[in-house]
Structures are given as C-alpha cells and as structure tokens.
Amino acid sequence: MSMSGLDGGSVVVTGAGSGIGKATALLFAREGARVLIADLNSEGAKAVAEEIRATGGTAVTVVGDLSEQTVADEVVATAVESFGSLDVLVNNAGIMDRMAATADVTDADWERQLRVNLTAPFLLTRAALPHMLAAGKGAIVNTASAGGIRGAAAGTAYTVAKHGIVGLTRSTAIMYRDKGIRTNAVAPGGTATAIVVDADPAGHGPAVVGGYMGNIGRIAQPEEQAAAIVFLASDAASNINGVILPVDNGWSA
Ligand code: NAI
What we know:
Elements: E1 10-14, H1 19-30, E2 34-39, H2 42-54, E3 59-63, H3 69-83, E4 88-91, H4 107-135, E5 138-143, H5 156-176, E6 181-188, H6 194-199, H7 205-213, H8 222-233, E7 244-247
Helix pairs in contact: 1-2, 1-8, 3-4, 4-5
The structure holds 1,4-dihydronicotinamide adenine dinucleotide.
C-alpha cells in the first residue's frame, strides 16, 4: 500500500508514448494508478500500455491530436468511462520543432506551437475540471519548460507557449484551490528524450540544448522529470498548489 494516494486512481498522461510522458505513465502505474495514455503516436502509446499491462497494471490508450477539442474531450470521456473518475491530469505532450528566432517565425509555426503546447493543455484542463469539481478533488500537473520561466534562444513561439503554461497553471491553481483541486507544473531543463535528439539528428542533443539555454550542467533523464510530476500529483504534495518546479540541475537557480 503506497502513501501517495495514487493507488487505484485514474490518471491521464498526454504525450505518454515517449520520453518524459512515458516515464511518468510507468511510474504512476508502479504507484498502482490506472493510466490513460494519450498520444499522437499510436505505436508508442500501445507499447507503453503493453508494458504497464505486462506488470499487472491497467492502461488504456487514446490516439489523436490533442490540439483538437474532439480528441481532448475523448481523452477525458474515456478516462471517466474506463476508470469511473478522473483524479489526475498530466498535460505533458509537446513539440519542440519549428524553433525560430522572432523575426523568422512564420504564421503557421506560431499557430502550431501555440496550438499544441498551450491550447491543447487548456482544452484538456477545461474538459477535466467538471469531473474533478463533481468529485471535490483532483490534481493537474503541466509540463512547462526552463523556457517557460526565463527567456531562451529556444524559439520564440515555444518560449511564449511555455510561459503561457505557467500562467495557465498559476491561475487555475488560484481559481480552484478551495474546491480541492491543485494545479502545478514542472519546468524541465534539457532532458534526454526524442524531442532533443530529433532537434539534432547528429546526436549532440545536450550540446544543442546548451546552445539555447547556456550551461545546462548535467542533462536530465526522463525518470527524473517523472518523479517530480508524480510527486506533485500525489498526496505527498497535498498543500502544494500553483508551483512551477524547476527540474534542471540548478540551471534556473
Ligand atoms: P518526446 O518527443 O519524447 O515526447 C513528446 C510526446 O508528445 C510524443 O510522444 C509526441 O507524439 C506527443 N505529441 C506531440 N504533439 C502531440 C499532439 N498534438 N497530440 C498528441 N500527442 C502529441 O519529448 P519529451 O522531451 O518527452 O517532451 C515532453 C514535454 O517536456 C514537452 O511538453 C516538452 O516541451 C517538455 N520539455 C522537454 C524538454 C527536454 O529537454 N526534453 C525540456 C523542457 C520541456
């Protein structure tokens, strides 16, 4: 029996087909939670669900583009239908391509970055809140970024979207704190996932991240981000609300 309060809980993790979301879904499952894996990548989502089931856990998948309201609604409805409630929403899915300096950001890149990295978490949060309000409890954890708390040469649209996540987190935290719902975020520094490797097919991910973040120190493993996300969702963080928790080896210190 775990002290996290997550045993038997109903958890949605977006972007759980890969990287930080995958590590987070696996850790929630180890805590005894039932996990809905939402991702655009059907193969990744299925593989993570199978990994959870192979250890006796419960997992379902929803495959689709979370920046569409119909998909966001389907994620929330499927969690409630499959598990009977929605206790935890982790808005983690994100894209880091289309990174351009301010003068070079195209309209299409701006719209897509904001749509996936900011609007999708809002759509999911809006869809999840009525269920959490009805239950009188819930936890939302958003994956922001080091680029969400400081400016970075990381692509203007990405940085703007992640700063938006910080605002979404803080305002939602204040608005629902008397209703038993906590909203927090992690702000990862450079982390060894596909998003970083894909940005540099030559395999110099940490060097690429360092190029726009300055000296990042040691690059994080996805499991280190997952540990912080699961902590913020757990009863161990019962009085923590509206926090943006850097997990960046001191980059933002
Ligand atoms: P990743 O690329 O391994 O995982 C992202 C997942 O999100 C992928 O499985 C992808 O298919 C999914 N996804 C992307 N767009 C989607 C959409 N429209 N609908 C549904 N699923 C979608 O990358 P990583 O690193 O695990 O990223 C997770 C989060 O962490 C992102 O929000 C990212 O911005 C954030 N982050 C990552 C950092 C890093 O250095 N890896 C640093 C700071 C923040």
